[in-house]
Design brief:
The complex is a heterodimer of chains A (about 100) and B (about 250). Chain A has about 100 residues and is mainly alpha-helical. Helices cover about 80% and strands about 5% of the residues of chain A. In chain A, α3 packs antiparallel against α4. Helix content of chain B is about 70%, strand content about 0%. The chains are: A mainly alpha (about 100), B mainly alpha (about 250).
Chain lengths: ~100, ~250
C-alpha cells in the first residue's frame, strides 16, 4: 500500500460524490446510465470474491479459504447477520487450515 | 447597539409554538433515529473487517486508518487494498476502486434535491454521500426527516466506520491473521455486501458473469486486471430479458 494510491483514491472517490451532489445536482441522467452504475457493484464485487477466495497472484488455487467462503455464502443465504457471516467464514477457514 | 447577523435572523425558540420540537426530543422521530444508529453500528462491524483485512494485506495501521478517514466508501477501500495486497499495480487497484465509487455520484444526484444549505454544507455532505446515508434519507417521508436521517446516519456512520477500522487494524496487527482465518475478512465482507443486491435478476446475471470473467482472466492477465474486466458482467446484465419488467416489480413496502 502506498500513500500515492491512498491520495489518488481519496481524490477520485470524493470527485464522484462531489460531481453528483454539486455539479450535476438534480438534473437527470439517461436511465441506462444509472442502471449501468447500479449493476457495477454486483459484477465487480463478485469478481473480488473470486479473486480473494480462489486465487494467489496469477494462479488459481483451492485451499482453506474456499471452504470458509462457501460456508459464509450459506450463512448469507440463510440471512445470518453480517457479523455471523464474517466470523463463520474466518472460523471455518482457520479450522480447515489447521486440519489440512 | 449593533445587531449581530446570525442571531437576529433566528426565530425566538421560546415563542414559536408552530415549530416542531428539536429533532432529538421529537417522539415521532425516535424509530428513524434508532434505525440510523443501528445501521451505523452494523457498519462499524464492516469497519473492523476492513481494518483486519487491510493490515493482513500489508498496509500499516496508520495507512489503514487514513484510508477510512479520507476515502470513506467501503467497497472501494476493500477493493483497492485487496488488489494492491495481491501484488496489483496502482493503476489497476485505483481503476477497480473507482468503478465501485462511481455510484456515489448517482447518490449525490438523489441527495442534491433533498438537502438544504449552501456550498460549504454541500462540500461536507458530499463526503458522507454513500449507500447507507442515501438509503436512510430517501426512505423518509418528509424533507425534514430526510435531512435529519442523512446527517445523523452520516455522522454516526463516519464515527463507527473509523472506530471499527482502528479496532480491526490494531487487532489484525497483534495476531497472525492466517492462523485465525482472518485473511477471509475481505471476501466474507464482500459476500455480506453483495447479497442484498442479488434479489434482482439482472444483478445476479452481472454477478455470475463478473465472477466467471475474473476466474478465466486470472492466469492470463496481471493481478488486478481481472477485476476491471468484470464490468463485462454489467453489459450482460443490461441485456437481461427480465430487465424490462424489473422496475415494475421493484416497489417494496
Amino acid at each position: 500500500m502506498t500513500w500515492t494510491l491512498i491520495l489518488l483514491l481519496a481524490a477520485g472517490a470524493y470527485a464522484f460524490k462531489f460531481t453528483g451532489l454539486v455539479i450535476i445536482g438534480a438534473r437527470t441522467l439517461p436511465p441506462v446510465f444509472e442502471r449501468c452504475l447500479a449493476l457495477i457493484p454486483a459484477a465487480v464485487i463478485s469478481a473480488l470474491i473470486v479473486k480473494d477466495t480462489l486465487t494467489s497472484g496469477q494462479e488459481i488455487v483451492l485451499d482453506a479459504r474456499a471452504a470458509g467462503i462457501a460456508v459464509a455464502m450459506i450463512a448469507a443465504w440463510r440471512r445470518a447477520p453480517l457479523i455471523v457471516v464474517i466470523v463463520i467464514g474466518a472460523v471455518v477457514t482457520a479450522v480447515v487450515r489447521q486440519v489440512s | 447597539m449593533t445587531v449581530s447577523g446570525p442571531q437576529s435572523s433566528q426565530p425566538n425558540p421560546g415563542h414559536s409554538p408552530d415549530r416542531p420540537p428539536h429533532w432529538w426530543r421529537d417522539e415521532s422521530l425516535r424509530p428513524m433515529i434508532v434505525a440510523c444508529l443501528t445501521l451505523s453500528a452494523a457498519v462499524g462491524v464492516f469497519g473492523v473487517s476492513f481494518g483486519v483485512g487491510s493490515v493482513a494485506a500489508g498496509a500499516s495501521v496508520l495507512q489503514t486508518c487514513v484510508i477510512s478517514l479520507v476515502v470513506f466508501t467501503g467497497a472501494s477501500q476493500f477493493s483497492a487494498v485487496s488488489v494492491i495486497g495481491a501484488g496489483g499495480s496502482i493503476g489497476s487497484a485505483l481503476g477497480g476502486a473507482l468503478l465501485l465509487a462511481a455510484r456515489n455520484g448517482v447518490y449525490g444526484m438523489a441527495m442534491s434535491r433533498r438537502l438544504d444549505g449552501g456550498l460549504g454544507r454541500k462540500i461536507l455532505a458530499a463526503q458522507l454521500t454513500i449507500d447507507e446515508t442515501t438509503a436512510m434519507a430517501v426512505a423518509q417521508p418528509t424533507r425534514r426527516e430526510q435531512q435529519i436521517a442523512f446527517w445523523l446516519t452520516g455522522g454516526a456512520l463516519y464515527a463507527c466506520w473509523n472506530l471499527g477500522t482502528l479496532i480491526g487494524a490494531l487487532a489484525g496487527s497483534a495476531i497472525d491473521p492466517e492462523t485465525y482465518g482472518l485473511d477471509v475478512a475481505f471476501p466474507a465482507g464482500f459476500i455480506a455486501m453483495i447479497w442484498p443486491l442479488l434479489s434482482r435478476v439482472e444483478a445476479r446475471l452481472a454477478a455470475i458473469v463478473g465472477a466467471a470473467v475474473c476466474l478465466v482472466a486470472v492466469p492470463f492477465t496481471p493481478v488486478g486486471v481481472p477485476i476491471l474486466l468484470s464490468v463485462i458482467g454489467v453489459l450482460v446484465g443490461l441485456r437481461s430479458p427480465e430487465t424490462a419488467s424489473e422496475s415494475a416489480v421493484e416497489v417494496r413496502p
